[in-house]
UniProtKB/TrEMBL annotation:
Its main location: cytoplasm. Homodimer. PANTHER family: HOMOSERINE O-ACETYLTRANSFERASE. It comes from Sphingomonas gilva. Substrate binds at R220, D350. It is found in: Cytoplasm. It catalyses: L-homoserine + acetyl-CoA = O-acetyl-L-homoserine + CoA. Keywords: Acyltransferase, Amino-acid biosynthesis, Cytoplasm, Methionine biosynthesis, Transferase. Transfers an acetyl group from acetyl-CoA to L-homoserine, forming acetyl-L-homoserine. Pathway: Amino-acid biosynthesis; L-methionine biosynthesis via de novo pathway; O-acetyl-L-homoserine from L-homoserine: step 1/1. This is Homoserine O-acetyltransferase.
Length: 381
């Protein structure tokens, strides 16, 4: 293991052991960008891994270096927050295949000296989890007190105890699923086709050239609609028009909701890589935890001592409550300890990213119940 560079809480490590991927390829080394908060206690029993969603990154509770915006889950992670950095050692790593410092399509291929682009091997959610396990080995953490994630992060949080049952004491899975439906895959394919239809995509070889920002912006707009609810959009925008001196018909952003979506798309291109979007959405589409364990979801958790907490939202139509219930049924069939709650929110799938007091109380209570008493002060990695 080499090249461990530390800049406050922002860290980067190059792990030189090879990583065998589900698709059959092998990465000779893995770069992982990550952040940590709090201190690891003396027996390394207070570590919590936060797994991020598709368009998020390792900057879970610190200012984003590109956008300057606050961390994407600051209401959840921090001193006195539900994931309390005074009590827990919190790790959040940029996933394999992403573009914020971890190995992905924009990384340099040692065989050519140029960015991998579309030569980067296909990855899966389980490959992301294996890379995270390598990071924990590097940090000297044999067992997690908890793994926590929402949306794609919830997929990782489910995959962790299924892949490494002995390494996870508890898992919090929020607004997620055990496999992608045909509708989920269809929405992602629309986004991927928007990226690949952009003439600047160049078959993925756009590094050093103008990137396919128009296609990526459209992909983000289409995906963002699935993160919201009809009630939330109606309450916030309805059919309100932009304020203008004169009313003209045409294809400018006449409606406020149009302007909102265009802003979401354009701002996204400032911080994300188009090829990474293709790879990560494909990894989500491939995810089917039951298929990985013989076709029966309960077998993924058979004999598992991990404690599970599942949370869904009543207006989430991307990963509706029925998806969480099917996971709970599988956990019950496997004899695993599981608790489940559906929360009310008008904000759809994105509710897990917002300050929802009921969710905060559920997560705080669950973590306190599974916490192993141990000295709070220790070594900060």
């Amino acid at each position: 293991m080499t090249s461990d560079q530390r800049f406050g809480l922002q860290r980067h490590v190059r792990l030189t052991q090879p990583l065998a991927l589900d698709g059959g390829a092998v990465l000779p080394a893995v770069e992982i960008a990550y952040e940590t908060y709090g201190a690891l206690n003396a027996d390394a029993s207070n570590a919590i891994l936060i797994c991020h969603a598709l368009t998020m990154d390792q900057h879970v509770a610190s200012k984003h270096p590109i956008t300057g915006k606050p961390g994407w889950w600051e209401q959840m992670v921090g001193s006195g927050r539900p994931i309390d950095t005074d009590r827990y050692f919190v790790i959040c790593a940029n996933v394999l295949g992403s573009c914020m410092g971890s190995s992905g399509p924009a990384s340099i291929d040692p065989a050519t000296g140029a960015p991998y682009a579309m030569a980067f091997p296909v990855i899966t959610i389980r490959d992301m989890v294996r890379a995270q396990a390598m990071l924990l080995d590097h940090l000297g953490i044999a067992r997690l007190m908890a793994v926590v994630g929402g949306s794609m992060g919830g997929m990782q949080a489910l995959s962790w105890p299924a892949t490494y049952p002995e390494r996870v004491a508890s898992a919090v899975v929020i607004a997620s699923t055990a496999r992608h439906s045909a509708q989920n895959i269809a929405f992602h394919e629309v986004g991927r086709q928007a990226v690949m239809a952009d003439p600047n995509w160049r078959g993925g070889a756009y590094y050093g050239h103008t990137p396919p920002t128009a296609g990526l912006a459209v992909a983000r707009m289409a995906a963002h609609i699935t993160y919201l609810s009809e009630a939330g959009l109606t309450e916030k925008f309805g059919r309100k028009l932009q304020e203008r001196d004169t009313k003209t018909f045409g294809f400018d952003a006449d409606f406020q909701v149009e302007s909102y979506l265009r802003h979401q798309g354009i701002s996204f291109t400032d911080r994300f890589d188009a090829n990474a979007y293709l790879y990560i959405t494909r990894a989500m589409d491939y995810f089917d935890l039951a298929e990985e364990h013989g076709g029966r979801l309960a077998d993924a958790f058979k004999g598992n001592a991990t404690r599970f907490c599942l949370i869904s939202f009543d207006t989430d139509w991307l990963y509706p409550t029925a998806e969480s219930r099917s996971i709970v049924h599988a956990l019950n069939a496997a004899g695993a300890a599981a608790s489940f709650v559906e929360l009310k929110s008008p904000f759809g799938h994105d509710a897990f990213l917002l300050d929802v007091p009921e969710m905060n109380r559920v997560i705080d209570g669950f973590l306190r119940a599974v916490e192993t008493p141990s000295p709070l002060k220790g070594r900060g990695l």
